[in-house]
Amino acid sequence: MEYMSQEGYDKLVAELRELESVELPRVRDAIAEARDKGDLSENFEYHAAKREQGRLLSRIRFKQKVLANARVLDMSRLKGDCVQLLSHIEITNLGNDRRMTYTIVNPHEADLHEGKISIKSPIGQALLNKKVGDVVEVRVPAGLLKLRIEDVRL
User: Fold this and answer.
1) Alpha-carbon torsion (138, 143, 147, 152), positive or negative
2) pLDDT < 50: residue spans in the chain
């Protein structure tokens, strides 16, 4: 079971609908068009379209599995005093004194450009269940980070 926000769940449902209703019919049309061109053994377009169909069906099955195991978190039942899934946090990197703001999310919703980090990432794991004022050390590929939690809210 994987917990996620309503926003993340809705986005995943929309992606799945797009794949099933737009992308899959487009690939099937490409296969039919390539098949009409004759000899399939040397038809590059046919083989490329079949490979694309396989990738697409794999993505569809993966998203269906994620949605089947997804549970939307009820925000009203969460406590805002410590870092947990869907917490908005402000942290300071003590190495360079830079402040950063992130939201801790499910791995399927993670997007660093939007300020969303995975709860399963090294930083997400290190911050989990910590409170404002706590200092944590996180081993990341670039070395050791010292982070202080400045604010936690839902």
Assistant:
1) negative
2) none
Under a CB-based contact definition with an 8 Å cutoff, are residues 2 and 66 in contact? yes
Q: What is the pTM of this model?
A: 0.72
3 state SS of 71: strand
Instruction: Decide if 88 contacts 106 (C-beta within 8 A).
Output: no
pLDDT of residue 14: 95
CB contact burial 55-74 (16+ within 10 A = b; e otherwise): ebeeebeebeebbeebeebe
The pLDDT score that the predictor gives to residue 33 is 86
- CA dihedral (32, 21, 116, 137) in degrees, to 10, reads -50
| pLDDT of 90 | 94
Cβ atoms 121, 108 nearer than 8 A: no
Instruction: List, in order, residues 6 or more apart from 22 with CB less than 8 Å away.
Output: none
Taking the CA of residue 146 as centre, how many other CA atoms within 13 Å lie in the half-sphere pointing to its CB? 6
**CA 91, chain centre distance (Å):** 21
- The amino acid that residue 86 corresponds to is L
